[in-house]
Amino acid sequence: MNWTNTLFEVIDMRSFSNLWFWILLAVVWSSVNHWVLGVPFDMIQKARKVGGQAEVDLQDLVRINVNRLLYIGQVSGLVLLAFLAFALTSLAILAFAYDVEFAQAVFLLAFPLTLVGALSLSTSQMIAREQPEGEALYARLSKHRVITQFIGMISIFITATFGMYQNLAVGPGF
Question: Which residues lie across from 13 on neighbouring strands?
């Protein structure tokens, strides 16, 4: 027997029935929800509770990350948008027109992350324009996190529903 046949029999290479895909999905959304505009959420909580130097550190880190995101958007935003549109369209065609399960899994992971990226850019523009400090900054970052959690929750639900449908439709051994 060929070693690749043995490997593919032991390890299920289909995306939605593979445990590693679901672990990756959980880790990605956990990380995305923990890092709010590149700032760890525990740092936001500490600045809100303690104040002082923690608040100054938070404002500096938010300023740095906001400026970084806006710079990337201004310098290469159009090229990144074109590449992203091409990549997502290619994935969608492979996933749903040609029924490639790996492309379906990647699309269901990547598309909501683009929404979070657009939200991050929008929030960065608001923060740069308004220059909030203290409680106004905490509220803006918390609102961003709640919307990100909502996008993640909907994404995980749709991915799990679609994955269960795929597993039931394809079944074992096909």
Answer: none
CB-CB neighbours of 152 under 10 Å: 20
Q: What is the DSSP letter of 36?
A: E
**Percentage helix, strand, coil for the chain under 3-state DSSP, each rounded to 5:** 85, 0, 15
Cβ atoms of 138 and 48 closer than 8 Å: yes
- Please enumerate in sequence order all residues whose Cβ is within 8 A of that of 72, keeping only pairs 6 or more positions apart, or say none: 80
Choice among 7-16, 59-68, 88-97 with the minimum mean pLDDT: 7-16
Element (H, E) at 139: helix 135-170
What was the pLDDT predicted at 78? 94
Is the distance from CB of 134 to CB of 55 less than 8 angstroms? yes
In 3D space, the residue among 109, 107, 83, 111 whose CA is nearest the CA of residue 96 turns out to be 107
Per-residue pLDDT reduced to its tens digit, 80-135 = 999 999 999 999 999 999 999 999 999 999 999 999 999 999 999 999 999 999 99
Extract the tokens encoding 84.
Answer: 């992203």
